[in-house]
Amino acid sequence: MYVLGIDLGSRTCHAVIVDPDGSVAGRSAVPVTADLPGTARRAEAAVERSVSDLYVAATGFGRYQVLFRDIAITDITSHAFGARSLFPDASCVLDIGAQTSRAMRYREDGRVERFKINDKCAAGAGKFLERVARAMELPLDEIGELSRRSKDPVTISSICAVLAESEIINHVTQGRAVEDILMGAHLSIADRVVALLRQVGIRGEIALTGAVSRNAGMVAALERKVGQPVRVSSDSEYAGAIGAALLARKRLRMMSHEYSS
Amino acid sequence: MKHQGVGRDLQKQLMAGWYRELAEGEGPVAYLFISGNVVELLRAFGFRVVYPEVNALQCGVRKVAGDLILKAEDQGYSSDVCGYVKNDIGLVASGNVGPFGKLPKPDLLLCTYSGCATYLKWFEALAEIYRVPLVMLDVPYLRAEEPDPHAVRYVAGQLQELVAVCERISGKRLSRERLSEILDRSRRAEDLWMEILDSCSGTPSPFDAFFEAVFFMAPIYVLRGTEDCVRYYESALAEIRERLEHRIGPVEGERHRIVLEGPPPWPHFRAFWDLFKKWGVCCVSSTYCRVGGIWDRGFRHDPSRPFESIAEYAVRCYTNLSLESRRRFMREQLERFRAEALVIHSVKSCRVFSVGQADTRDYFSRERSVPTLFLESDLADPRYFSEAQMRNRIDAFFEAQEHLRKGVPCS
Amino acid sequence: MLVAGVDVGSTATKAAVVGEDRRVLGRGLVSTGANVVRAAESAFRQALEAAGNEEWEISHTVGTGYGRYRVPFGNSQVTEIACHAKGAHYFFPDTRTIIDIGGQDTKGIRVGASGEVLDFVMNDKCAAGTGRFLDAAATTLGIGIDEIGPLSLRAQLQLRITNVCAVFVESEIMSHLAKGRRVDDILRGVHLAIAGRSIALVRRIGIENEVTFTGGVSRNPGMVSAIEEKLSTRLNVSPDSQFTGAIGAALFALEKVEHDVRAGH
Amino acid sequence: MPNPLEAIVERCRRASIQEDVLSWKRTTGGKAVGCFPVYVPEEILHAGEILPVGIQGGGGIDTDLADSRIQSFVCSIARSTLELGLRRDLDALDGMVFPNICDVSKNLAGVWRRNFPDRKVEYVHLPQNPESAYAEEYLRAEFGRLRESFAELAGRPISYESLRESLAVFNRNRRSIQDLYRLRVEKPWAVTAAETHLLVRAGRFLPKEVHTSLVEEGTVAAEASSRRRRDGLRVVIEGAFCEQPPVEWLETLEQAGCLIVDDDLQIGRRWFDRDVETGGDPLAALARAYLRTSPSASIRHGDEISRSQALVARVRRSRAQGVIFAAAKFCEPALFDYPILRAALEREGIPYLTFEFEEKMSVFESVRSQVETFVEASLFFA
Predict the structure, then answer these.
(1) CATH class name, domain A1-87+235-261
(2) In whole angstroms, what is the distance from residue A45 CA to residue A26 CA?
(3) Cα gap D314→D236, rounded to integer Å
(4) Contact D346/A at CB under 8 A
(5) Burial level of D73, CB count in 10 A (0-12/13-18/19+)?
(6) Taking chain B (411 residues) in consecutive chunks of 10 residues, what is each chunk's mean pLDDT?
(7) For residue B3, what are the contacts with CB-CB under 8 A and spacing of at least 6?
(8) Are A1-87+235-261 and A89-232 the same fold in CATH?
(9) How far apart are CA A67 and CA A58, in angstroms?
């Protein structure tokens, strides 16, 4: 059976179709509007597919707004399972979102062993980058590249995202180089999310999922803090949707197996 | 000025020697806390004594606390619990090697409850790691000015039981003579230390009872009961007398005399002091330099009452006092040393200091109209200190003090 | 003889030129942005032009605010606490308490009869409940920062916002929207939450009438009414409230000059 | 017809200082004393015909007054209790007792004395060295001190006879609660954690005798109830021994697929796991009970078995499949134990999930999805 995995997040809604042998047959990504059920519908319509009869697995914070779902799965379970299929050698995933960041560690079969959600002062990583970009009057998707030119990144000590922002403004006023400030900003986030990762216990390779995975500066900062390569893939943003689809597929098989036996 | 800085240098040597003794010396090892400690008793059995708090503050001063605290948070310690404990847990995770060298493993964890309830959680954690006996010396908090008789009997009784534990671990019997020699040396050092603290009543004060005292006080808490400790305070006192004679103070041109309540922000100690120096501030008394014990009210260790005086010391240390009693102490100090203001440094790590300080501030600023400055940061965690914010508060406060004096606050 | 004050804040830089008669002759206002020195200079120039004068005629300039040590032409520096006290006293001689809410700092100041600082408090090392919280709420709701105040005044029911952290307010606002709450009710809740937090801080020094509200946020009518409701007292708010610090600084400059003249040098 | 259990739970949900304590005082003309968590020897108050009132915090009220006295890094219950006091919402209480459970509680006694000079404020120091041979004599004397102090407040002496009677009343109350918990282990769907919490919590405001019968009736009703058996992940809650999580938080856990089969909520209401002897010297009996039969808790030192062993034993006893750590934000005793307990659970291969709660919590989405994740781990990977 074909399974549609749909990840309704806060910024973008990703959808994938997984064919009976478990490989991704189609993708789509649409921006999220106030009308969440409608957004889910548009994402579903946007995936090119050959079949009409689909089993639908929804994930992401808006999973219950996917009214045509067959099953709802939380982002953590699905991100871990998706990462497992995208990064065979990884057993830890970092998912950096606009507001919350998550670190997960999973077993070989993809079962989440430990996870930690960033829900304290250090939250708001993605949003923090957006604000930094605005403060420096730069487009968001350029700050990562720029930061990589840094030779001597600034240090940002505050754990409060708001005060960290004012520290950045301080550095700006002191005339520090743009790339050093940007790298400092990325490193300060890396500090916080790597702390999450350490709390779940680093084992094997580390994969990065979510929109921030496109930010090369963030990847560099993470690798520097964690001291090992951080894997990203062009499908990183689809990890949630893929994981949801594959889990649904797994669940279907478990059930059919139960019935047949 | 031949005596300038002797106290400081000698103190550094002594502490270095002490850490060397810990690393290389002989004899069983006990871990002990500073507040109301019973080190004389342990000394009588030849224990080498490790003070986790002192290690933690050393890590703070040497700016390695931040990383050690993160190490502990990686193990699941919350960002909201005492930074001293996390620093120590991080230190253990790094093989118990600090800026001061390698620390020996304990044979005994002796927890005195007179510091704070967190002491207990701290040693429970170490007991999990080292799997050695944790002896609890339970010291009831002083509800009123005077301890309850049953509380004193309880503490004294536990000390008797502690002797048995020490005899078992050290394999030595308690020698009364040795104990009273040690207590006599404690008493002599305490007399000298008090004379140094009292010298702050001079104008200018020859000594900063916070920013200098936190270094000068190390031997009275760490080496108390040793001949070295007595010799140290003899030469420190000589230095202070020299300063008095030449009217030298810790700051150029003393302009403001303050009493300071609360522990220092160790990772930013220098920066913190400079913010006060800039205004010619001298701290003429502080509660932190009494954190281990209080001698101002006449208490001394007493060879003729060994256990009673050890128990009394434990019961009457600053952190074991009720808030009323602490306020009374600050009031006495403000008057005795003719201080114009009270500065409260409220630290997140140490609830036993911090909770109630807002009432203390309210009491002094409103009921006694003593100008009071309230500062917030931490004693161990560098993340909670913002120099810009500190400067703003301290500048504004002394600006106002100057303004009240000469009408023009421009610096 | 003219004097000036320049108040370099985290978001806006303000300047004021004052004459011997203590009258405010010119004001300057620019956003601080990336370059403090430039901001200070252009605010200063604006004020001079408004006063119709050239720089060399200014006998003394006092810098205040976070960037006070970076005002290159400043003759001396005074903290914004003293300057706000001075400025507020200038507008409202009977004021005894000042509540100042800025971008990342909230202050309470107790002032004496001559505008001297008797006591003060500032928020601890957490930006919760400062002006930044309002920005976050505005962005979350996609409304301009200048519109949220007036909008909040149209609220119909009391709605509680429990989290005053600028990072988490988004999720709380989102959940209220999800429950179909009205935007103006939510905004009223946001304003009351900050009002409560700020008043709790200022209570540490005791709140005595008259109370003056200064700082960037004092231009927000929703904030004024929220604080007035919580304190059940009227607030002094000067049309010049944003310039309180700069004017206070200029007045210190004036005193300095007079003092030096008296001292005969 | 409505389930009688639900009616009883509703009664308990309404229990409060404003309602029940005030009306008790009106009818009896007696005095009432607030007891800060976790354990206070309420029997002594009861024997003096003083109503012991359990301090429960403010349940998420605004804390504008207390925020000016309590720094931002202190737990909700200290903050909201002071707020209630400053709002004069605790005027029904003629006194307060603070035990040495943590540094905050120790100092709160002093804060209370300064802000409420007209009230009786007691600080009781419970031994942290129960192994000491001197602990019993000390605690007996400490309880004796309280007996005199409360007798003074009551304006009448407190006899040994009345103390023995009170011990019996409290024994029965604790037994009723323990029976309710036993039922939870067997039929967790018959009475939910939230219902149990409300049933037990009412004991903080109601006279013990009244409360005991409510709990006994509730348990009978639950046993008889025809509720459908529910499937879910059997979990134990650990860490909520002092400040209590919002009821909505508990409900979220259960809606998200957990069956809470044991917890340390309101642990002070059932502090002893067996009856206190009612013969002989009642104060000595109470002291011995505290030293020998207290449960394992983060705020008390000196058990024969470690806290980790005690937790693992609780998990096994209740046949739980996982543990949910629920520490009040800023609660040092709970947060310091967490890494140690966590390590033990990992050694035992027991899954766990961690939360920090506070009274002002109002958004539970994140809690829900984390619990769902926790449950999914067993759902998809049987």
Answers:
(1) alpha beta
(2) 11
(3) 8
(4) no
(5) buried
(6) 68 92 93 96 96 95 93 92 96 92 95 93 96 96 91 95 97 96 98 97 95 94 96 95 93 95 96 96 97 94 95 94 96 97 96 96 94 94 84 92 71 45
(7) B238, B239, B242, B243
(8) yes
(9) 9
SS3 A127: helix
Is the CB of residue B356 less than 8 Å from the CB of residue B323? yes
User: For chain C, what are the domain ranges?
Assistant: 1-92+241-265, 97-237
CATH of domain B178-406: 3.40.50.11900
Element (H, E) at B243: helix B227-245
Q: Where are the domains of chain A?
A: 1-87+235-261, 89-232
Cβ atoms of B264 and B290 within 8 Å: the answer is no
**Cα C239 off chain centre by:** 12
In CATH, C97-237 is 3.40.190.10: no
Chain-chain contact of A109 with D381 (C-beta, under 8 angstroms): yes
Q: What is the pLDDT of residues D297-355, one digit of tens each?
A: 999 998 888 999 999 999 999 999 999 999 999 999 999 999 999 999 999 999 999 99
The helix-helix angle for B227-245 and B176-198 (nearest 10°) equals 20
Q: What is the ipTM of this complex?
A: 0.89
Residue B171 neighbours by CB distance under 10 Å = 10
Q: Is the distance from CB of C190 to CB of C169 less than 8 angstroms?
A: yes
Per DSSP, helices labelled H in D256-326 are 282-293, 307-317
Q: On the CB side of D47, how many CA atoms lie within 13 Å of its CA?
A: 29
Three-state DSSP string of B352-403: HHHCCHHHHHHHHHHHCCCCEEEEEECCCCHHHCCHHHHHHHHHHHHHHHHH
Residues 6+ apart with CB under 8 A from B27: B46, B47, B48, B170
- What distance in Å separates the CA atoms of residue A197 and residue A195, rounded to the nearest whole number? 5
* CA-based nearest distance C48→chain D, Å: 42
Give CA separation, C231 vs C155, C189, D65, in Å: 19, 16, 12
Which of C135, C145, C167 best probes binding to A when mutated, by most A CB atoms within 10 angstroms? C167
Q: How many CB pairs under 8 A join B and D?
A: 157
Q: Please say whether the structural domain C1-92+241-265 has been given the CATH code 3.30.420.40.
A: yes
Is B136 in contact with D129 (CB distance < 8 Å)? Answer: yes
Question: Hey, how many other C-beta atoms are within 10 angstroms of the C-beta on D129?
Answer: 23
Side-chain half-sphere CA neighbours of B270 within 13 A: 4
Task: Using a CB–CB cutoff of 8 Å, tell me whether C122 touches chain D.
Answer: no
Residue (of A10, A4, A14) closest to A50 by Cα position:
A4
Find the Cα–Cα–Cα–Cα dihedral B229, B233, B234, B239, rounded to 10°.
150
Residue B229, classified by CB atoms within 10 Å of its CB into exposed (0-12), middle (13-18) or buried (19+), is buried
Q: Who's near B232: CB < 8 A, 6+ residues apart?
A: B7, B10, B11, B14, B189, B219, B223
Measured between beta carbons, the chain C residues lying within 8 angstroms of A121 are: 126, 165, 167
Q: Residue B376 is nearest to which of C77, C82, C125, comparing CB atoms?
A: C125
Residue extent(s) of CATH 3.40.50.11890 domains in chain B: 6-175
**For residue D92, what is the DSSP state?**
T
A89-232 homologous superfamily: ATPase, nucleotide binding domain (3.30.420.40)
Looking at this protein, which amino acid is placed at residue B392? N
Which class in CATH covers the domain with range B6-175? alpha beta
B366 touches chain D (CB under 8 A): no
